[in-house]
């Protein structure tokens, strides 16, 4: 669920997310409902995923981090 919310935050709107991704409206609405029911869980997961690369390298020096491609 958090991945969909993460994408939604990046896309800026449900409409744009639906238009520019493979996601369907029912899946996005389900993720929104889950976020509304468990806002802290989703916020924590999104924040964890948004950690800067430098911080990840310090916290997890044993993992490789792929180059960012945008």
Please characterize this protein's 3D structure.
By secondary structure, the chain is mainly alpha-helical. The protein has one domain (2-59). Helix content is 69%, strand content 0%. The chain contains 5 helices and no strands. Helix 1 crosses helix 3 (25-37), helix 1 crosses helix 4 (39-49) and helix 3 (25-37) packs across helix 4 (39-49).
Brief descriptors of the model:
5 helices, mainly alpha
Quickly describe the structure.
By secondary structure, the protein is mainly alpha-helical. Helices cover 69% and strands 0% of the residues.
Give a topology summary.
Blueprint: H1 2-11, H2 14-20, H3 25-37, H4 39-49, H5 53-59
Helix pairs in contact: 1-3, 1-4, 3-4
Mean pLDDT: 91
Written as H for each helix and E for each strand, in order along the chain, the element string is HHHHH
SS strand fraction: under 5%
- The Rg value, from CA coordinates, equals 14 Å
- Give the N-to-C terminal Cα separation: 22 Å
- Anisotropy-based shape: globular
Q: The biggest beta sheet, please? A: none
Number of helices: 5
Counting DSSP E segments of at least 2 residues, the number of strands comes to 0
Low-pLDDT ranges? none
Q: Helical content, roughly? A: 55-70%
Overall number of structural domains: 1
Structural class: mainly alpha
